[in-house]
Amino acid sequence: MNARWNCANIIRVLSSGLNFAKFTERVSSANESTLMSDFEERLQKAISRGQKARDAEGEAAGQQKETVEDLRNLHSSLRISVSEHIEGCLKKLCDHFPGFEYSTVMNEDGWGARITRDDINLVAGNNRNLYSRLEMLVRPFSDTHILEVTTKGTIRNKEALNRSNFRFLKEAEVGDLVEIVDALVLEFAEKYSANG
Fold first, then answer.
1. CA-based R_g, the chain, Å
2. 125-129 contacts at long range (C-beta below 8 A, 24 or more positions apart)
3. CB-side exposure of 41: number of CA atoms within 13 Å?
4. pLDDT class of 1 with cuts at 50, 70, 90
5. What are the residue ranges of helices labelled H in the chain?
6. Where is this region: Disordered (predicted)?
7. pTM of this structure
């Protein structure tokens, strides 16, 4: 029923002696065209809302795709800067500790560098190989949207470093990441020189 046929109107019509069945017939026929036009109007609004929702979904998906691509580009830029800094630091470490062999690393684990050294310990007739290495990698882009620097260090067959440092891409800064790399290389250098 139409909203204008509230309880007061119904009571007034019924008290005037009109039969309830005839009353509902009159109301039905009078409101049938109104109801159909109301339905038509609501149908158009529903269709319009659906189209707007579909358009909004498409825009959101497009923006997310752009955002992921932007994050991928940011990761690539940071990765290049940090991996170049890693390479420079490890080359300097090789200069200060002769015997280390430097190699650039580019594989499925990441980008960076590695230095290795294999010494022979000839003490009291006991021949032992003493292996030392430092590897620092920037991990590939992932769904977590972070830039991760992994560090593995071994000094004379003993693990000295095993770290994973990360920053969310939206918060990552080259200067901060370079400081992390510097601190880890300095820590390895100090431990290596202490173990002679």
1. 37
2. 129/157
3. 6
4. very low
5. 7-15, 20-96, 174-194
6. 48-68
7. 0.65
CA angle 131-132-137, nearest 5°? Answer: 130
Give the angle 76-80-86 at the CA atoms, nearest 5°.
Answer: 140
Specify the amino acid at residue 186: L
Distances (CA, A) of 137 to 22, 35, 146, 149, 167: 87, 70, 14, 6, 14
pLDDT tens, 96-111?
A: 999 999 999 999 999 9
Q: Contact, 177 vs 151, CB < 8 A?
A: no
Please state the domain extents for the chain.
81-194
Tens digits of residue pLDDT in 66-81: 588 899 999 999 999 9
